[in-house]
Specification:
Elements: H1 18-30, E1 37-38, H2 53-64, H3 77-89, E2 95-102, H4 103-113, E3 121-126, H5 131-138, E4 142-149, E5 155-156, H6 158-164, E6 169-175, H7 187-200, E7 203-207, E8 232-237, E9 249-255, H8 258-274, H9 286-291, H10 295-316, E10 321-322, E11 331-332, E12 335-336, H11 342-353, E13 355-356, E14 358-359, E15 370-375, H12 380-402
Parallel strand pairs: 1-13, 3-4, 3-6, 6-7, 7-8
Antiparallel strand pairs: 2-9, 4-5, 8-9, 10-12, 11-15, 12-15, 14-15
Helix pairs in contact: 4-5, 10-12, 11-12
Length: 404
């Protein structure tokens, strides 16, 4: 009997996720016995970062009290109230709804699904987190990237955004602090984006999952706090700020004019109800996490500051590499002065040195430029060895290309 092929849905054709895709190659190399230096995944728990004890204790006690069934679709009341209080502290007002999800990723996917029709588009930062392009591809939306300006500290290029808005644009995504560049946006830039959103009736998707991981005394400004009328969904969660990405607890805060958002909010809640609920016992960690002391952040940011500074200093010292200094999160996005694909460089780097980084093409970048993303969560010894390996390999790579 002839085998009949099961064809996948067309909507999956363009779904890629470079952060995880590169692991396949890394696993192959690891099997050869080579020492691996992983600078590719933003998981603090793989390194020397620990969540606050009170968060863990409350979650554990909830499990022991058998809070192990379904939760309300939008989240348990005490957690929703704690998120609202946190939003108020950030200056966000005119809040219309709050919902808790399985990580901020689920919140983002639900909100895009409830908004964007096939052949419409969402303005997506480039470089930016690849989840957004993956979900847009699944929805069969049209890619509409806007560029971040490397020469201006990776801030959004407002003029480029203006050029990209058209009659089928539904929203603008803002990742602040940004993944993969670590850039932090000024009030001036945020106000300009608000003006565009109001002018063109766009929803702002404000991804602020790293809003407490800030360097050098910098202040994070929530874009929703600057105008109570702009339609905005602010995404947050426990994963990064509280070092528990495996809890998969995130949330969305919808703010803006009630009359404008009513139908959209109901569409979001339809999806929330259909998927039942987010993880239940972990939701009992939200209130103590947001309201108790943040000593874990003080310790964590001391480590990250040292590692950020080492990253910038060592990579900028490599001929052919330039690295903008990150202001938040734990990523850097160095540029490589070459005309060869960054994916070719990163693949060779992994095979020859065991240093695992992600090619810049996996996050999007200005055409003709080449980059790679590093995660500077590992300790200084690992980072030092990794950056030395990168320097040696880049020189070898470029020389080999010249001799071809």
């Amino acid at each position: 009997m002839d085998t009949k092929i099961i064809k996948p849905a067309i909507r999956t054709n363009n779904i890629t996720y470079a952060v995880r895709d590169i692991v396949v190659l890394a696993q192959e190399v690891a099997k050869t016995g080579k020492q691996m230096l992983y600078l590719n995944i933003g998981d603090p728990n793989l390194y020397d970062f620990e969540p606050p004890t009170h968060l863990l204790e409350n979650t554990y006690q909830a499990m022991l009290k058998n809070k192990n069934g379904y939760a309300p679709s939008s989240g348990i009341p005490e957690a929703v109230k704690a998120i609202e209080a946190e939003a108020n502290r950030k200056g966000i007002s005119n809040i219309q709804d709050i919902f808790i999800t399985t990580g901020a990723s689920e919140a983002i996917e639900i909100c895009l699904t409830a908004l964007v029709n096939e052949d419409e588009n969402v303005l997506t930062p480039t470089p930016g987190y690849p989840l957004y392009t993956a979900v847009s591809s699944k929805l069969r939306a049209i890619e509409n990237p806007y560029y971040l300006d490397e020469s201006n500290g990776w801030k959004p290029d407002i003029e480029d955004i203006k050029k990209k808005i058209n009659s089928k644009t539904r929203a603008i995504i803002l990742i602040n602090p940004n993944n993969p560049t670590g850039s932090l946006y000024s009030k001036e830039v945020l106000l300009q984006i608000i003006d565009l959103a109001l002018e063109h009736n766009l929803v702002i998707f404000a991804d602020e999952i790293y809003d407490k991981l800030l360097f050098d005394g910098k202040e994070h400004i929530s874009i929703a706090s600057l105008n109570p009328n702009v339609p905005c969904i602010t995404f947050g969660g426990l994963s990064k700020n509280y070092f528990v990405p495996g809890f998969r607890i995130g949330w969305g805060i919808i703010s803006g004019q009630a009359s404008a958002l009513k139908e959209y909010i109901e569409a979001i809640n339809k999806i929330l109800r259909a998927r039942l609920s987010a993880n239940h016992p972990e939701q009992y960690g939200i209130k103590p996490a947001l309201e108790s002391n943040h000593e874990h952040l003080t310790i964590g940011m001391q480590k990250l500051t040292r590692r950020r500074d080492m990253t910038v200093e060592m990579l900028n010292a490599v001929p052919g590499i330039t690295c903008v200094k990150p202001e938040g999160a734990f990523y850097a996005f160095p540029g490589i002065d070459m005309q060869y694909p960054d994916s070719e460089f990163t693949s060779g780097l992994i095979r020859e040195t065991g240093v695992v980084v992600v090619p810049g093409s996996g996050f999007g970048q200005v055409p003709g430029t080449q980059h790679f993303r590093v995660v500077f969560l590992p300790n200084e010894q690992i980072l030092e060895q990794a950056y030395k390996n990168i320097a040696v390999y880049l020189d070898k790579f470029l020389n080999s290309k010249k001799n071809q």
